[in-house]
Design goal:
Oligomer: single chain
Number of domains: 4
Low-confidence stretches: 24-38
CATH superfamily of the largest domain: Tetratricopeptide repeat domain
Number of helices: 19
Shape: elongated
Helix content: 55-70%
Largest sheet: 3 strands, antiparallel
Length: 391
């Protein structure tokens, strides 16, 4: 209803003006005592509006609007309104009608063209939108808006090479945010190369990612994966040591491969030292549990349980509690075991329903690590959750 009132306020004065003007033109040649009247089309549109047939009313009033310097803004406002209401086809029709007018000034045409590009984006016609924004990217006034939309298109279509080139044009010299985005684009190319087992290409993209952003966590993880796949375990471990300095919150993502590297090198002592250092630098429950697993294999369940319990005094964790319960169940009496099993079941269900990752920009929660947040589209904002319910 509010939108209908807005349309009424927007269109009625203009429709009255053109209706009056058209009616006046038709009376030219009549006597001086003639009465000025409104056009029949005006009353038709007004009747539709009063009968709450807003779609027909809008079509009728729009047909009355002649495109000139006084009505261009009205056409653009109507088109924007339709697009926001999800009526993209109507918005496209209005903006196409504007562009087709030969009397339109160059600047008004560019503005209408920009809005048409937004319409095509809303309709999912990305190829048409791309052509428009490419044309406008050479215009000083509309350059940034056009490049921003092109960047959105190339991310949606996964055309990472074009996304890199566009991001570089959009902000030069590069800001920290642009560096972050471009490094992720190179990582996307690297992961595509890894799927094809093209390790050389993947390594090349990683070098470029580090050149843009030396602190890119994702590039470090991919580099370690490349080294691990090629059997270069020491090089992979060097990457993981770099990871603890970049952002130790992501260490759980590497824990399995990290452990396997030390196993392949037959260096359990080295693994313990690595985990111990990681704990002193703020490693979470995944690091604690990995350390406890080694203790369990070397000294038994009691040593592992004691270590977990001591760590949980400083770092309370549901995951740690669950593992501690599991260790106690193995040695519990028949009287105590049912209670422990019930407690284990409760904690397991709690963890099952809890998200693992959290976007620091918009608050999006997920059980899957997304390098680009599905909600706010920010790159690198999703991280493992810290605290009692996470790491």
């Amino acid at each position: 209803m509010n939108e209908l009132i807005f349309i009424f306020i927007l269109l009625l004065p203009i429709a009255w003006y053109f209706g009056f003007r058209n009616g006046k033109k038709r009376e030219v040649g009549k006597s001086s005592g003639r009465q000025h009247g409104l056009s029949k089309t005006y009353f038709t549109g007004l009747n539709y509006l009063l009968n709450e047939e807003s779609d027909k009313a809008i079509d009728t009033f729009v047909s009355m609007l002649e495109v000139d310097s006084e009505t261009v803004e009205t056409h653009l406002a109507l088109g924007n309104l339709f697009r926001k209401r999800g009526e993209v086809n109507r918005a496209i029709r209005i903006h196409q009608n504007l562009i087709a007018r030969p009397s339109l000034t160059s600047e008004d045409r560019k503005l209408a063209l920009l809005e048409l590009g937004y319409d095509y984006m809303g309709a999912g016609l990305l190829d048409r939108a791309e052509n428009i924004f490419k044309e406008l990217s050479g215009d000083f006034i509309h350059k940034n808006a056009s490049l921003s939309q092109l960047l959105v298109i190339y991310q949606q279509t996964k055309d990472w090479e074009k996304a890199i080139a566009t991001a570089a044009k959009l902000q030069y010299p590069m800001s920290e945010n642009t560096q972050n985005e471009i490094s992720h684009f190179y990582c996307e190319l690297a992961e595509e190369a890894l799927q094809k087992q093209s390790y050389r290409d993947a390594s090349g993209y990683m070098k470029k990612a580090f050149q843009v952003d030396p602190q890119c966590v994702r590039a470090t993880l991919i580099s370690a994966e490349v080294h691990y796949s090629k059997g270069r375990y020491k090089q992979a471990l060097k990457c993981y040591k770099d990871l603890t300095k970049q952002d130790i919150a992501f260490l759980p993502e590497a824990m399995d491969t990290l452990t396997n590297c030390y196993i392949q090198l037959n260096d359990k002592k080295g693994l313990l030292n690595f985990l111990s250092e990681a704990l002193s630098n703020g490693g979470g429950i995944s690091t604690i549990l990995a350390y406890a697993e080694i203790l369990q294999s070397q000294q038994g369940d009691k040593a592992a349980g004691t270590f977990i319990a001591s760590q949980m005094n400083q770092h309370p964790s549901l995951k740690g509690l669950l593992r501690l319960i599991e260790l106690h169940i193995e040695h519990a009496s028949e009287h105590a075991k049912p209670s422990l099993e019930m407690l284990h079941d409760i904690v397991s269900k709690l963890l099952k329903n809890k998200p693992i990752y959290h976007c620091e920009h918009c608050g999006f929660d997920s059980k899957t690590l997304f390098w680009q947040c599905p909600s706010c589209k920010c790159w690198g904002g999703v991280k493992p959750i810290q605290g009692i319910e996470g790491e």
